Amino acid sequence: MNIDGTAWRTIWLEKDGHSVGVIDQTQLPHKFSTLKLSNCQEAATAISTMIVRGAPLIGVTGAYGLMLALQEDPSDNALEAAFKQLNATRPTAVNLRWALKRIRDKVKPLQPAKRAEAARAESALIAEEDVAMCEAIGNHGLAIIQKLAAGRPSVRQKEPIQVLTHCNAGWLATVDWGTALAPIYKAHRAGLNIHVWVDETRPRNQGASLTAYELGREGVPHTVIVDNAGGHLMQQGYVDAVVVGSDRTTRSGDVCNKIGTYLKALAALDNGVPFYVALPASTIDWSISDGVAEIPIETRSAMEVTHIQGRNNNASSNNQLTTVQLTPNQSEGFNPAFDVTPARLVTALITERGVAAASETGLMELYCDD
């Protein structure tokens, strides 16, 4: 995607061929900066501290993390140790384990001297596949948006199509294009009049900081709202569709996404607003069926709830990022990072292979040959 006229991806192999570059998302939207990852530990830290985040991007970063580990020590023991270290960084998104397993399966049969190069090639392939899948998701989602636009009453034809999204499922969450935002980018580039309601997405504010940043750079009209405003907007008829991403989707169509997604789905159902989930195949966990019972929910630091980060606009601060406390000293915080939306609340799943019903039958119709 474009940033100030320059095309960027979220992760890339550096020119030296042995290190990996990433955008430091903890600095956005106030500062655009990049980091170089030179070893497995740095890759693990980038994932756990959310320098990189979003299920697809986490997976690609994990793959490159194994490459970095194998460059230092290609032995079986080092491979397994790096696998465990990287896999433990974020427990909810299934893409991470999927990508790590793919690299491990690729290099394990090889002689140690050939493993790093094989991991490098496979990681690059995973990244390219992610871009292609996300663009395909965008194309399938565009068809849905076009249908929604055409189906509106004639008195609303000149009004923008109103889409609400939660968290960040754009190009910053993937290698490029994104999942939930890919259809929006496609619609905008196709000339459709579209406007996005951007949930702030407490506690880390990925909507306010990252989704708003992306949409602004692309020139997509958008408005940031507090998380609890979505239901009100749906009641008032200001939302034509909700589109979100997924960190893990069960074979039955249950969807695990950023905390607060479940409440948006309930509000959408109550107000007759279609609720779509956009995801690539790597996000589907075919091994589980009951998302509420079986998906591990990451609990992050309570400090993300009790404190908030932003830019200090005081003249003497030089616009530095700062963290401030929101709560009384004695108040504890609890910070589950995700929740599960049952399949019954999902209108459809938008995948790289097409649009599926949120059910095992619906998914199998698209992926029966896998």
Automatic annotation (TrEMBL):
Known pathway: Amino-acid biosynthesis; L-methionine biosynthesis via salvage pathway; L-methionine from S-methyl-5-thio-alpha-D-ribose 1-phosphate: step 1/6
Q: Which domain of life is it from?
A: Bacteria
Q: Name one GO molecular function term.
A: translation initiation factor activity
Asked if the keyword Amino-acid biosynthesis belongs to this entry, the reply reads: yes
Sites marked Transition state stabilizer: 167
Catalytic positions are 247 (proton donor)
Under catalytic activity, the entry for this protein gives: 5-(methylsulfanyl)-alpha-D-ribose 1-phosphate = 5-(methylsulfanyl)-D-ribulose 1-phosphate
- Write out the entry's keywords from A to Z: Amino-acid biosynthesis, Initiation factor, Isomerase, Methionine biosynthesis, Protein biosynthesis
In this chain, substrate is annotated as bound at 53-55, 90, 206, 257-258
Which family, according to UniProt? Belongs to the EIF-2B alpha/beta/delta subunits family. MtnA subfamily.
Q: Which HAMAP family match?
A: Salvage_MtnA
- The protein's name in its UniProt record: Methylthioribose-1-phosphate isomerase
Organism of this sequence: Prochlorococcus marinus (strain MIT 9313)
Please name the gene that encodes this protein: mtnA
